[in-house]
Amino acid sequence: MAFLIQNQIGIVVFLGIIVSIALSNIFVLRRSRRDKHDGPLPRISVLVPARNEQDNIEGCLISLLTQDYPDFEVLSLDDDSKDETWEKMRALAASHRELRVIKGEPLPQGWIGKHWGCHQLASAASGDLLLFTDADTRHQPSSLRTAAAALTQSRSDLVSVLPKQNAASFAEKLIVPIIYWSMLSFLPLALAYRIRIPSLSFALGQFMLIRYPAYRDVEGHSSIRGHVLDDLQLARNLKSKGMGWRVIDGTDQVECRMYRGLKQAFGGLSKNLFAVFDYNIPVFVWIWILTVFWAPIIVLLLVPSGVFHSNPLLFLSATAVVLSLISWALTTFRFSYSWYLPLLYPLVAWVAVIFAFSSMIMTLRGSTMWKDRRVKHVRRGEGASRTD
Question: CA-CA distance, 1 to 11, in Å (whole number)?
Answer without folding.
Answer: 15
